[in-house]
């Protein structure tokens, strides 16, 4: 497969992740995250795969809006890609509003013809 097609697949995987997060679709998210996934939230907390998914399964996190732009994907060989972009979120966590804009970095690894997310880091973007 040409290199640019694999990069496009990694970019598509990021788009699918954003859509699944917005929908709170844990079945889709579960398929996208590696078994040893680590997610680092905007306030420094770290969640493993089970706890990341449980935010939605428990009803604690509800996204009204979850979008990404400024997405860039860089590939490193056939099996690794790094994605960066900006997330905009309007959500509630345990009934409290948690809106924000965040820079994200996602480490993706090839799993056959699919790309899966092994690590995710969110950093808040201060308001001007």
From TrEMBL:
Matching InterPro entries: DUF4440 (IPR027843), NTF2-like_dom_sf (IPR032710)
Boundaries of every DUF4440 domain copy: 12-117
Superkingdom of origin: Bacteria
The protein's name in its UniProt record: DUF4440 domain-containing protein
């Amino acid at each position: 497969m040409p290199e640019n097609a694999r990069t496009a697949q990694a970019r598509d995987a990021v788009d699918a992740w954003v859509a699944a997060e917005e929908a709170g679709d844990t079945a889709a998210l579960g398929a996208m995250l590696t078994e040893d996934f680590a997610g680092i939230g905007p306030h420094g907390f770290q969640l493993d795969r089970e706890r990341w998914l449980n935010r939605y399964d428990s009803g604690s996190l509800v996204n009204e809006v979850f979008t990404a732009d400024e997405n860039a994907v860089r590939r490193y060989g056939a099996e690794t890609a790094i994605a960066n972009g900006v997330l905009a979120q309007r959500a509630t966590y345990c009934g409290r509003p948690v809106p924000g804009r965040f820079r994200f970095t996602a480490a993706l690894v090839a799993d056959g013809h699919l790309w899966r997310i092994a690590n995710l880091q969110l950093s808040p973007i201060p308001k001007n």
